[in-house]
Write a structure and sequence with these properties.
The protein is built from five helices and eleven strands; from the N terminus they run ααββββαβββαββαββ. By secondary structure, it is of the alpha+beta class. The chain folds into two domains: 77 residues, wza like fold (2-Layer Sandwich), CATH 3.30.1950.10; 107 residues, Outer membrane lipoprotein wza domain like (Outer membrane lipoprotein wza fold like), CATH 3.10.560.10. The longest helix has 35 residues. The radius of gyration is 30 Å and the shape is elongated.
């Protein structure tokens, strides 16, 4: 009788061990699948959870990245002089106002101080407005809307059919911009097309593109995407040397203002 009981206990213990091993194996497989899919329990707890969220890397969300060529293609819009912004308050509509960014980059808030607006995106400007009204309103909650702004543009000059200033209404590459500007002339040196991109108020960066070879060999991945304010110059003769960084006044060596 004792031998039967002992045998029965061994069978029960072995069965429980198999169940525990199966459960552990299932949990391990589920964990592996979660890692492969890029999800975890910590990433499902809401905004700000986990170290790989977009909020933890605001540089990408804002598109600032590298301000030089090859940076983010979709940066958030930043206010400029002459932009018109509308400010409204949820609990204090008497402070609602529409303001124009002055040439010095500031706006004068109603019954408050001057606030710097130029260079800020709308979220940053809203935070600046709320901070300015903290001494006037108990809980200032503002909403900011962009009502009017300078339309994004690019400039094409040199040996093209219709040199001039064009609105940047959608994503456009250098080769597409040249075609929009009437295409290349018979005298163009399209193996040395120069792209000028503004870095700040004083400097621009240059990039030389060999459109002839790029289009012939269909290396379209090398075709640069334009950003607002970019300038394209198609020379007539070979440029022996061009510095990577130039001062803005020196652009007159390449761009003829009479073309625009």
């Amino acid at each position: 009788m004792k031998r039967r009981l002992i045998g029965f206990e061994i069978v029960v213990v072995a069965g429980l061990s198999l169940q525990i091993c199966a459960a552990a194996l299932a949990r391990g497989q589920n964990s592996d699948r979660a890692q492969e899919n890029g999800t975890s329990h910590s990433s499902l707890t809401g905004a700000g959870a986990g170290g790989n969220s977009t909020a933890a890397n605001p540089g990408r969300a804002d598109g600032l990245g590298n301000p030089l060529l090859g940076g983010e293609r979709r940066p958030l819009y930043r206010l400029r002089a002459s932009d018109v912004v509308e400010i409204s308050f949820t609990v204090a509509p008497e402070f609602n106002q529409t303001l124009t960014v002055q040439p010095d980059g500031y706006v004068l808030l109603k019954d408050a101080a001057m606030v710097r607006a130029e260079g800020l995106n709308l979220n940053e400007f809203r935070a600046a407005v709320e901070k300015a009204y903290q001494g006037y309103l108990h809980d200032p909650e503002a909403a900011v809307a962009l009502k009017d702004f300078e339309r994004p543009y690019y400039i094409v000059g040199g040996e093209v059919g219709k040199p001039g200033k064009y609105e940047l209404r959608s994503e456009v590459t250098v080769s597409e911009a040249v075609q929009i500007a009437g295409g290349l002339t018979s005298q163009s040196k399209h193996s040395q097309v120069v792209l000028f991109r503004r870095i700040n108020d004083e400097l621009v960066e240059t990039r030389v593109l060999n459109l002839k070879q790029m289009l012939k060999q269909r290396r379209l991945k090398e075709d640069a995407w334009l950003e607002p304010g970019d300038m394209i110059f198609v020379p007539q003769n070979t440029i022996s040397k061009i510095d990577r960084f130039l001062t803005r006044p020196s652009l007159s060596m390449y761009m003829d203002p009479s073309q625009f």
